[in-house]
Design a protein that fits this description.
mainly beta; 5-stranded antiparallel beta sheet; 343 residues; Immunoglobulin-like; 48% strand; 1% helix; 7-stranded antiparallel beta sheet
Length: 343
């Protein structure tokens, strides 16, 4: 059974080292002739669609800036010509894992644990005996590739991977939190060695639209790690999103808050804070800032908003230094995050 709703066209892919192969043709929207292999692109997804009613309600989900409206990146699914596989997933090369790097400093976080993760799958096929997908957390090695394994999720069977619409997310739990190294740098990968007979492909940004160059990696069949930038070459961010329990999150989010993800940066801050959040459904929204005594010092009525990603810049230049609570309130609940003002 194949679960895809894709529109196909072709863009070039260059295979290096063991992946290099020459084909007599390349298609780029129409047929043309080039002496290299090509990779089709499918299912362009609007950034505004980066939301889902089943997106798990959590304290903080990290995702690259390239997946937000702060960057106007095209989101897509890359597949491999000739083998019914995916660049960011299973393919005829026997790739074992696909990984995305995260740096806590980019989110103004000091430390934390990975307690779960989400993937955004854009296509799959499932055999009569579905295999398992697991997610792994790695420290960053000396070469910049994934290094020491520090955590593994519970498995999810292929038949439970969500591709029912353009933005289906699948949640992976961790039996034990994965402690992020003290330098704050880590990878989260999708491991596919147990999906023989099945195929799966993740959503990614289009080539060249990334938050940080060279942050996506893959493990080849010989167990060596290679960046997408040198292997294909594609400079992309991939849809593997860690759920973080971190120092600044106060854990007030409830499953009924109507807020699927929230991120505040910079934190500590000086004159402005940027608030990114994902609404699970249409709702009125109020943003409130309270001091340590619980006294409300700011109330911003955002009115009625559609489900999906929303970004808000808040001027706090007149707020005194100290610790504050930022509350994002919907019709069904609220999410509260701690912020530090240090001007």
């Amino acid at each position: 059974m194949v679960e895809c709703n894709l529109k196909f066209y072709i863009c070039p892919k260059q295979i290096q080292t063991m992946k290099k192969i020459t084909l007599p043709f390349l298609m780029l929207l129409s047929f043309a002739t080039f002496a290299q292999r090509s990779a089709p692109v499918s299912n362009f997804v609007s950034v505004a669609d980066f939301s889902n009613e089943n997106f798990r309600a959590i304290t903080d989900t990290l995702f690259p800036l390239s997946f937000t409206t702060a960057m106007t990146c095209t989101l897509t699914v890359y597949s491999v010509v000739g083998d019914s596989g995916y660049v960011v997933g299973t393919n005829g090369y026997g790739d074992k894992e696909k990984a995305q790097r995260y740096d806590l400093s980019s989110y103004q976080l000091l430390e934390g644990d990975v307690t779960g993760a989400l993937i955004w799958a854009g296509g799959k096929s499932v055999s009569s005996t579905p295999g398992n997908v697991v997610l792994k957390v790695y420290a960053v090695g000396g070469t910049g590739a994934p290094g020491t394994l520090i955590g593994t999720s519970n498995p999810v069977t292929m038949d439970l991977i969500d591709t029912t619409n353009a933005n289906g997310f699948t949640y992976f739990s961790f039996a034990s939190p994965a402690a992020i190294p003290t330098n704050g740098n880590f990878f989260v990968s999708m491991e596919m060695s147990q999906v023989t007979g099945d195929t799966i492909g993740l959503v990614s940004t289009a080539n060249g639209c990334v938050e940080t160059t060279g942050y996506s990696y893959e493990k080849w069949s010989d167990n060596t790690w290679h960046s997408f930038l040198t292997a294909w070459p594609l400079d992309i961010d991939i849809a593997v999103f860690p759920i973080i329990d971190h120092e600044f999150g106060v854990g007030v989010n409830s499953i009924n808050s109507g807020i699927n993800a929230i991120n505040i940066f910079p934190n500590p801050t000086t004159k402005n804070i940027n608030l990114n959040y994902v609404l699970a459904c249409n709702s009125s929204v109020n943003i409130k800032l309270m001091n340590a005594a619980g006294i409300e010092i700011m109330n911003l009525n955002e009115g009625s908003l559609n489900k999906g990603i929303h970004n808000k810049s808040i001027d706090i230049s007149n707020v005194s230094n100290g610790v504050y609570m930022l509350s994002v309130e919907t019709l069904t609940g609220k999410s509260i995050q701690k912020i530090v003002v240090a001007q």
